[in-house]
Fold this protein.
Amino acid sequence: MLTNTKEKIFVTKSYMPPLEEYMQYVNRVFENAQLTNNGPLVRELEEKLIEFLGIENIQYVTNGTIALQLALRALDIEDGEVITTPFSYVATTSAILWEKLTPVYVDIEPDNFTIDPKKIEEKITDRTRAIMPVHVFGYACDVDTIQKIADKYHLKVIYDSAHAFASVYKHRPLVTYGDISTLSFHATKLFHTVEGGACIIKDEIVKKELDLLKRFGHNGDEHFCMGINAKQSEMHAAMGLAIFPHLYEIIDKRRIICQLYDSLLEGCVKLPKKQEGLEYNYAYYPVVFKSEKELLRVFEALKKEEIYPRRYFYPSLNKLPYLLDYQPCPISEDIADRIACLPLYPALDLSIVEKIAKIIKTTVDN
Ligand SMILES: *Cc1c(COP(=O)(O)O)cnc(C)c1O
């Protein structure tokens, strides 16, 4: 008898399209016998993404981390400092470090966890080359103020938009701000292609440069520059194309879950304050507890029911052990200690959401 085995609930669960819909695309790949090198499915997915997101161009690559690295390279940021946020997934910082650049951390806004533009200018030196903010959880950075600072100091802006797929800010897709915006289509993200990522690029020349960089820097027998391999495969595009028709349904289900959490958790945990003018994509459901102790107590209570939220993002990246120096960011460090993301994915049953909220309510300090 298996009556006592509960399904474990994690913070997310990859969206699986109907198998027969996926197989239709796989069949096409088999018929074409072209597996990679800018094949027809990759091109079809790019076109669909352009239309769905309301953007003008996109370059689909193998993951969101290499997208950030290609962005730095395509903008010729080869040495110096990059101003970034300590409150993100580790890939934002590792992309900078991997390119042998120095991350300079600017603390975050306490209400929506994005980089605090008021604190950027004081960190600019004659070695600063770029600003790499993150639209963390799909919330919008203060894009106008950041652009003004970038213009004043002649800096490039690369947005890590890994969470910002389909978020709209001030009537513009969030991914259209900055010189380059990058996406991640990792299996855990709102829209995924198993692994995958993309760059959305403003400038025509930079676009061409990145297109070369991602395929070894050559075109046939003509070699232009040193490149790397970030070409995405047809099999990955097949997953994206199979998920594509379900995108509205995916976002809708997430919205319903978020709204239920909102109504049940109001007043018992701190919920982020979204910016005016943001049409949210419901990518994550972060809550801030009063203390780390309270968070750990809630985690313990949920674990008894086989429910596992995640400490996104923890630790604050300025505290990574392999950094050369410690740059204090008190707000990010404080938030990182007591924030968690609650389970959120289309297949999540609303009764589980109610159960999670009830456990949280009865476990937090009043
Ligand atoms: C997921 C993620 C990345 C990395 O994307 P991959 O596709 O996994 O390489 C980068 N930045 C942020 C903020 C992310 O959440």
